[in-house]
Design a protein that fits this description.
single chain; alpha+beta; six-stranded mixed β-sheet; globular
Length: 542
C-alpha cells in the first residue's frame, strides 16, 4: 500500500533493572528533626556549589576536574558524601542535556510544520496525513511571525547545545515559578519557602558492596535502626561513635522487606534517601538497589500461549484476549481510570487499573501482554494540530512514560512479558476489520476494543486483517489454507468435512445402481406428494 510508513518489528520489553521501597520515619524527636534539617541544608549548599561548577565546565569537563571538585567537597563533608554529591551532579547535568536535545527536536518539528503550511495556498484543504493551508491571510501572517520566533529560539538552543551550556534549577523550575503565583497555588510565602528549602536539601547516600549493611553513610540495620554519618562541620551533633547520629525512629519495609533484609545481611549495596513531605509534615526513608540484568524470553516463547492486546486511551485500557493463532476469545474488557486531580491521584489510578489488568491476564492463563510503543513527543505541537486544543490536551494527558515503566515493573513481578508493537494504524485497521464483525446485540464493540485486537495480532506476528486473499488458482483450498487465524495443521471451518456416521455410505448398490437417501425437505414446496393437506372447516367462509 503506497503512502504507508514501514512498520517496526515487535520486541519483548526488557524487565526492570532497579527496585525502590519506602517507609515513614515516624516518632522523630524535635532534636532528630533539627539534625536532619542541619545535615540536609549543609549538604544541599555543597550540592548547589558543585552543580554550579559542573555547569561552568560545560564540555571541558574531564576526570581531573571531577577529582578536583571531589577533593574540595571532601574537606567540608567526607569522601563518601563528596562522591555521592558529584555523582548526583553529573546525573542532573546529563538529564538537562537530554532535555535540551528534546527541546531542539520539538522546535525543529514545529518549524517544519509551519514551513509546510505556509508554502500552501491560503484556504487549501488538508488531508488525514498532512495539514492544509491556513484559513485566511491574517492567520498566514501571524504564523509567519511565529515561524520567525521559533527559528530564533531554535538557533539560540542549538548554540547553547554546541557550547555545552545547560539551564538547571535545584528544586525544580515549576516550584520556582510557583513563587510568583502563590494565590493560584493556595500557598503562603512561608509554606512555599519551606517546600523550596526541603527540595534543595541533599540527604542521600549511594550503596557500597562489602561494607557493613551495604552503606556506610546512611546505615540501616536489620532491626530497622537508622544512623547517619555526619559531615565534618556537624560532627559535634553526633550521639554515637565515629561521628554518627542514630535516630530514635525505626523503619520496617512492608513491601519487599525480605529481599531488602537479604541484601543488607549479605552486605550488598543499598542506596538510601531521606526526604521531608512538607504538606504532611512527615519524614520518609527510601531504599533502592539494582538488580542483575535479566535476559528476556524469546518472542516466540512469549507468543506460545496467546496474547492480551491492550489499547491505551485517555480514560481506560481496552483489552482483548487472543489465542496463539490470532483469534479473539471471549469479549472485550475495559479497565477505567481517572487522570484528573493531583499527580499522586493520577499515579494511584494508573496503578489500580494496571493491577486489575494483570490479575485478569493471570486468571485467563496468558503469559504476555501486547501494548503500543507510544511516544507523543512530535504529536503535541500546536503547529501540527492548530486549533485542536482539546485533542492536544487529550494526548498530553496520557502518561505514556510512566505507564510503560509501571506496566513493565508490575508485570515482571508476576512473570508476565510485555511485547511492544508499532502503534501505526492500529485504531484505523482494527475498526475496519474487527469492530463490525464482532459486534452482537449482547456485545458492544468500540473502536478501542477493535484496536486491542489489532495490537494483539501484531504482537503475535499476524496481519491485522481478518482473512487473506483467495488462493491464486481458484476459490478452493487447493493452493493452501486461505485464513490466517489457524495453523496449517488445524482443522477449522474451511477444512475437510468429516464423514457422517449416521447415514449409509454413498456408492453403487449391489444391483449396480447408485442409491442415495432423499434429503430432508425444508420447504412446503418440496414436500413429498403423499402428504395430504386438509383444510380446516372452521377456516372456511361462506
Amino acid at each position: 500500500m503506497s503512502g504507508l510508513r514501514k512498520l517496526t518489528a515487535s520486541f519483548v520489553v526488557p524487565g526492570p533493572c532497579g527496585v525502590a521501597i519506602r517507609d515513614r520515619l515516624g516518632h522523630l524527636t524535635p532534636h532528630d528533626e533539627m539534625v536532619l534539617r542541619a545535615v540536609g541544608e549543609h549538604q544541599g549548599r555543597l550540592s548547589s556549589r558543585d552543580l554550579k561548577a559542573r555547569c561552568a565546565d560545560g564540555l571541558e569537563h574531564s576526570a581531573d576536574t571531577w577529582a578536583a571538585r571531589k577533593r574540595e567537597l571532601t574537606a567540608l563533608s567526607s569522601s563518601r558524601i563528596a562522591g555521592a554529591i558529584t555523582k548526583a551532579t553529573h546525573d542532573q547535568w546529563a538529564l538537562a542535556r537530554r532535555c535540551q536535545a528534546a527541546h531542539i527536536q520539538k522546535l525543529a518539528a514545529g518549524i517544519r510544520a509551519l514551513r509546510h503550511r505556509l508554502s500552501l495556498p491560503v484556504g487549501e484543504r488538508g488531508t488525514k496525513r498532512a495539514a492544509g493551508g491556513y484559513r485566511s491571510k491574517g492567520e498566514w501572517f501571524r504564523k509567519s511571525r511565529r515561524l520567525a520566533a521559533l527559528e530564533d529560539r531554535h538557533a539560540a538552543a542549538v548554540a547553547e547545545w554546541q557550547a555545552g551550556r545547560v539551564r538547571v534549577v535545584r528544586g525544580g523550575k515549576r516550584l520556582l515559578n510557583t513563587r510568583h503565583h502563590l494565590t493560584q497555588a493556595r500557598l503562603t510565602e512561608e509554606q512555599w519557602r519551606q517546600r523550596w528549602k526541603a527540595e534543595r536539601w541533599f540527604l542521600a547516600a549511594d550503596g557500597e558492596s562489602g561494607k557493613r549493611f551495604g552503606n556506610e553513610t546512611i546505615r540501616v540495620t536489620p532491626d530497622g535502626e537508622v544512623s547517619i554519618k555526619l559531615p565534618a562541620p556537624l560532627a559535634h551533633l553526633a550521639n554515637a561513635r565515629h561521628g554518627r547520629y542514630t535516630l530514635t525512629a525505626t523503619v520496617a519495609f512492608a513491601h519487599r522487606g525480605a529481599e531488602w533484609a537479604d541484601r543488607i545481611e549479605a552486605n550488598r549495596a543499598v542506596a538510601y534517601r531521606i526526604h521531608l513531605d512538607t504538606e504532611r509534615g512527615r519524614w520518609y526513608l527510601t531504599a533502592s538497589w539494582q538488580r542483575p540484568a535479566v535476559k528476556t524470553i524469546p518472542l516466540e516463547a512469549a507468543r506460545a500461549r496467546g496474547m492480551i492486546g491492550v489499547d491505551t486511551n485517555a480514560d481506560h485500557f481496552a483489552a482483548y484476549r487472543l489465542d496463539r493463532h490470532g483469534n479473539p476469545v471471549g469479549g472485550p474488557r475495559r479497565f477505567f481510570y481517572d487522570l484528573s486531580g493531583t499527580a499522586g491521584h493520577r499515579d494511584a489510578q494508573i496503578r489500580h487499573a494496571l493491577t486489575r489488568l494483570i490479575n485478569w491476564v493471570r486468571q485467563v492463563g496468558v503469559a504476555a501482554i501486547g501494548i503500543e510503543d507510544l511516544d507523543f513527543t512530535t504529536e503535541k505541537t500546536r503547529e501540527k494540530h492548530g486549533r485542536r486544543k482539546r485533542f492536544r490536551q487529550l494526548i498530553s494527558g496520557i502518561p505514556t512514560g510512566k505507564l510503560k515503566a509501571r506496566l513493565v515493573s508490575m508485570a515482571a513481578e508476576h512473570g508476565l512479558s510485555i511485547v511492544a508493537v508499532d502503534p501505526a494504524y492500529t485504531s484505523q485497521w482494527g475498526a475496519q476489520h474487527w469492530q463490525k464483525p464482532l459486534a452482537t446485540p449482547h456485545r458492544k464493540m468500540s473502536r478501542h476494543d477493535a484496536a486491542g485486537i489489532a495490537i494483539g495480532r501484531r504482537a503475535l506476528g499476524h496481519p491485522v486483517r481478518r482473512r487473506t486473499a483467495p488462493p491464486p488458482h481458484d476459490r478452493s483450498d487447493r493452493a493452501g489454507h486461505r485464513t490466517v487465524q489457524a495453523g496449517p495443521g488445524d482443522r477449522g471451518r474451511e477444512g475437510t468435512r468429516p464423514p457422517a456416521t449416521d447415514r449409509p455410505p454413498e456408492g453403487p448398490s449391489p444391483s449396480g445402481k447408485r442409491t442415495r437417501e432423499p434429503s430432508a425437505s425444508n420447504t412446503v414446496r418440496d414436500a413429498p406428494s403423499t402428504q395430504q393437506w386438509v383444510q380446516d372447516s372452521l377456516m372456511r367462509t361462506g
